[in-house]
From TrEMBL:
UniProt keyword annotation of Signal present: yes
Protein task: Causes loosening and extension of plant cell walls by disrupting non-covalent bonding between cellulose microfibrils and matrix glucans. No enzymatic activity has been found.
Family as reported in the entry's similarity comment: Belongs to the expansin family. Expansin A subfamily.
Gene: LOC112285133
InterPro entries in UniProt: Expan_Lol_pI, Expansin, Expansin/allergen_DPBB_dom, Expansin_CBD, Expansin_CBD_sf, RlpA-like_DPBB, RlpA-like_sf
One cellular-component annotation, GO: extracellular region
Superkingdom of this protein's organism: Eukaryota
An annotated GO BP: plant-type cell wall organization
Pfam families recorded: DPBB_1, Expansin_C
Expansin-like CBD domain boundaries: 193-271
Name listed for the protein in its UniProt record: Expansin
Keywords: Cell wall, Cell wall biogenesis/degradation, Membrane, Secreted, Signal
Location of the Expansin-like EG45 domain: 68-183
Organism expressing this protein natively: Physcomitrium patens (Spreading-leaved earth moss)
Length: 275
């Protein structure tokens, strides 16, 4: 069946008459379209690959009060994430799937008026932050309410981009590659029948979308996301633990015997990482 407006197997015959569009000739229409191509980019101000969001801050000036959260990172400083982290609004957080993902933020240019002020230090300055927490709906100012894309930064991260007195600023953001030192780390928790593994320090995409676990006496067993970056299997396992991890960019990595034979609860083991 031929789709409307698409000529299949034959040439479309165009009229030689000069068409009229709301009283405009073809030359005038062409001119209007040319002007539009010049005006639209300056109005939108949106570089390719970037999206709109806003930033606020929480915690103390040194990042205190932001170390834990919905990704199950008990201390983002000791785990190597530092103070350049953020709590994401739920559309970005995706129920914890975004934990560990890295984002580049840049202040968005605003037209200043008597009621609108630019609080950013520089429009050219960028920072890279890691998703480590959730900014839940109902937070102050409704900035984190769906469907908004929002980053509630630690205060040190916010102050790198904007002045504290502003409190909120419009930004552009995009996903970027996470650069990490060392390998993927596995912190063992739970109990013998309910194993919980905190997977962190993931390079590349940074976020983890699927995990399978294996011992010398088992096949690959799917794990499920308990919450945040905590992955669980309800089965008693012993011996060295191997992992197969699928990241947010669909790349996979297999780490054989990432956790050694003599593992104990509370330990952290390290394997190789995405390149």
């Amino acid at each position: 069946m031929q789709s409307p407006g698409i000529a299949l197997g034959r040439k479309r015959v165009l009229s030689r008459c000069t068409p009229k569009m709301s009283g405009l000739t073809r030359v005038e229409v062409t001119f209007v379209m040319f002007v539009a191509t010049l005006v639209i980019p300056s109005v939108l101000g949106m570089p390719v690959g970037w999206r709109d969001a806003h930033i606020t801050y929480y915690g103390s000036p040194n990042g205190g009060g932001t170390q834990g959260g919905a990704c199950a990172y008990q201390n983002t400083f000791s785990l190597g994430y530092g103070a350049m982290t953020a709590a994401l609004s739920s559309p970005l957080f995706e129920g914890g799937a975004a934990c560990g993902a890295c984002y580049q933020l840049q202040c968005k240019r605003v037209q200043e008026t008597r009621t609108v002020k630019n609080w950013c230090w520089s429009y050219s300055r960028t920072i890279t932050i890691t998703a480590t927490n959730l900014c839940p709906p109902g937070s102050a100012g409704a900035w984190c309410d769906p469907p908004r894309h929002h980053f509630d930064l630690t205060m040190p991260a916010f102050l790198t981009l904007a002045r504290r007195e502003g409190g909120v600023a419009p930004v552009l953001y995009r996903r970027v590659k996470c650069v990490k030192r060392g390998g993927i780390r596995f912190t063992i928790g739970g109990n013998p029948w309910f194993l919980m593994i905190l997977i962190h320090n993931v390079a590349g995409a940074g976020d983890v979308r699927a995990v399978r676990i294996k011992t010398p006496s088992t096949d690959w067993i799917p794990m499920y996301r308990n919450w945040g970056a905590l992955w669980t299997v309800q089965r008693k396992l012993s011996g060295p633990l191997s992992f197969q991890i699928t990241a947010g960019d669909r790349r996979q990595i297999t780490i054989n015997s990432a956790v050694g034979n003599a593992w104990k609860f509370g330990q952290t083991w390290e394997g190789h990482n995405f390149r």
